[in-house]
Amino acid sequence: MKAMETKQRFFLRNARIQANAIGVIHSLALDDKNPVVVEIKPLTRTLAQNAK
User: Fold this and answer.
1) What predicted TM-score, i.e. pTM, was given to this entire model?
2) How far apart are CA 34 and CA 48, in angstroms?
3) Four-residue CA torsion sign, 18, 22, 28, 31
4) Which of 14, 16, 18, 32 has the most CB atoms lying inside 10 A of its own CB?
5) Angstrom distance (rounded) from CA 20 to CA 9
């Protein structure tokens, strides 16, 4: 299996984005030796703050 090369973030603002995130999770391969981490956390900084 090829390792996941990109990091994806979903800012859950509406049902469409939520469905996209769920779809990505469903499409991930399950692998005991090379698991993928899914982290859910509240927003701590705004996008404008991160752009500085």
Assistant:
1) 0.71
2) 34
3) positive
4) 18
5) 11
pLDDT digits (tens, 9 = 90+) for 18-52: 999 999 999 999 999 999 999 999 988 887 888 87
Name residues whose C-beta falls within 8 Å of residue 12's C-beta, 6 or more positions apart in sequence: 18, 21
Q: What is the DSSP string of the chain?
A: -PPP---------SHHHHHHHHHHHHHSPP-SSS----------S-HHHHH-
Euclidean distance between CA atoms 33 and 49, whole angstroms: 37
Q: Can you say how many angstroms the Cα of residue 2 is from the centroid of all Cα atoms in its chain?
A: 18
Tokens at 24, concatenated: 């990505």
Domain-by-domain residue ranges, the chain? Answer: 15-42
pLDDT at 18: 98
